[in-house]
């Protein structure tokens, strides 16, 4: 009987996968799935990471197991984003056969700086969740993309771990760290050569530079950035969305930018 039971599971799985491959728009998992629930870290956690605590264990991630209504191999993605709608999430880890995950403060710090591109020694509010992924099934077969925990927030201050992050950043008297940096690192945009940031600025001036180095910096007008160009004035303090588009022709860099006050 056990063999027949396992055979039935296998045949059902094969049928479901084959149906997904033929017409993904017509096959869906049950929308009555039980989503995982995060128990730790606590929502609205505030924490500062430091050199002195880098070898300590960061708060453990623990969640309840998801249930899709049938026997399934479920993987859990711990996702982080700088946006409250969880757009452009970065995966901290994918966990199989467990509902717990631990890492050191140093490992988390490297993720914050390298993947989320936070600014060292500056507090930032970030958003996170756990998404239950059924191994081997296309995401289009999931209700709303997958069973997920509620989105929680965390305010974290990373320290200056040496991380090989090569990206464009914003520097200047209007930025949190001034002209000496480190720069406010920009996220990759939707297209190649485009970078974006949502940042709180003071009245002052800014420029764009690559990898915290004045060897490659851009300034000028919105439609005509040039290497070593003029500083860009920020007339009043506030929260801004900044988009930078960089073009390279040989060893020459030019670009354009938009700055929108939110």
Automatic annotation (TrEMBL):
InterPro entries reported in the protein's UniProt record: Ig-like_fold (IPR013783), SusE (IPR025970), SusF/SusE-like_C (IPR032187)
Pfam families, alphabetized: SusE, SusF_SusE
UniProt key word Signal: yes
Any one GO molecular-function label of the UniProt entry: starch binding
Residues of the Outer membrane protein SusF/SusE-like C-terminal domain: 170-251
Keyword Signal carried by entry: yes
Listed transmembrane segments: none
Residues making up the signal peptide according to the UniProt record: 1-18
Alphabetical list of Gene3D superfamilies matching this protein: 2.60.40.3620, Immunoglobulins (2.60.40.10)
Domain named SusE outer membrane protein: residues: 22-130
Domain of life: Bacteria
UniProt keywords, alphabetically: Signal
GO CC terms in record: outer membrane
Official protein name in the record: Uncharacterized protein DUF5019
Phylogenetic placement of the source organism: Bacteria, Pseudomonadati, Bacteroidota, Bacteroidia, Bacteroidales
């Amino acid at each position: 009987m056990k063999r027949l039971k396992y055979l039935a599971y296998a045949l059902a799985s094969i049928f479901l996968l084959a149906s997904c491959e033929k017409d993904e728009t017509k096959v869906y998992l049950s929308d009555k799935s039980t989503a995982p629930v995060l128990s730790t870290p606590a929502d609205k956690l505030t924490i500062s990471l430091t050199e002195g605590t880098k070898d300590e264990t960061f708060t453990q991630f623990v969640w309840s197991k998801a249930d899709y209504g049938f026997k399934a191999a479920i993987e859990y993605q711990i996702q982080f984003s700088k946006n409250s709608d969880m757009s452009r999430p970065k995966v901290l880890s994918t966990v199989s056969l467990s509902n717990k995950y631990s890492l050191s403060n140093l490992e988390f710090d490297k993720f914050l700086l390298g993947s989320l591109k936070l600014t060292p020694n500056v507090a930032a509010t970030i958003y996170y969740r756990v998404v239950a992924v059924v191994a081997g099934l296309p995401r289009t077969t999931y209700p709303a993309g997958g069973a997920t925990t509620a989105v929680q927030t965390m305010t974290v201050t990373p320290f200056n771990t040496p991380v090989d992050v090569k990206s464009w950043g914003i520097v200047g008297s209007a930025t949190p760290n001034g002209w000496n940096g480190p720069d406010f690192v920009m996220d990759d945009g939707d297209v190649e050569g485009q970078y974006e940031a949502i940042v709180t600025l003071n009245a002052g001036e800014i420029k764009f530079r690559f990898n915290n180095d004045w060897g490659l910096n851009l300034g000028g007008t919105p439609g005509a950035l040039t290497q070593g160009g003029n500083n860009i004035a920020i007339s009043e303090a506030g929260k801004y969305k900044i988009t930078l588009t960089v073009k390279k022709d040989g060893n020459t860099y030019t670009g354009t930018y938009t700055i929108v006050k939110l």
